[in-house]
Prior knowledge:
Largest sheet: 3 strands, antiparallel
Number of domains: 1
Radius of gyration: 24 Å
Oligomer: single chain
CATH class: Mainly Alpha
Mean pLDDT: 89
CATH superfamily: Winged helix-like DNA-binding domain superfamily/Winged helix DNA-binding domain
Strand order of the largest sheet: 1-3-2
Order of helices and strands: HHEHHEEH
Helix content: 55-70%
Distance between the termini: 60 Å
Low-confidence stretches: none
CATH topology: Arc Repressor Mutant, subunit A
CATH architecture: Orthogonal Bundle
Strand content: 5-15%
Shape: elongated
Structural class: mainly alpha
Amino acid sequence: MVESSAPALDAVFQALTDPTRRAMLRSLAAGERNIGELAAPFDMSLAAASKHVKVLERAGLVQRAVCGRTHVCRLDPAPLAAADEWLRFYEQFWNRRLDALDALLKAEDLATAPPPRKGKPR
């Protein structure tokens, strides 16, 4: 696991802590949006939406272009790949733990299962 980009990874996870920012990223996954379009689903001002976008920009998740008075944002998914790589390490850990739990439960089921009934088949 590479830790050389820890500050960048910290910024990505910090940006993802807020549900509004996660929803904005989801919206941007469908295509470019201006700040007004990103703010529309929420009860927030354009200034508040812009602050959320700045956090996403600092994390490298969003790129903003200014066209006149309109700020157009687009998703840059590259930093999410680093977060995904970091999480995959723990996915392997949990998969091993869940496999061990599954084996334990199956063994317990076999140990406590009633013996098969003997007799005439119907």
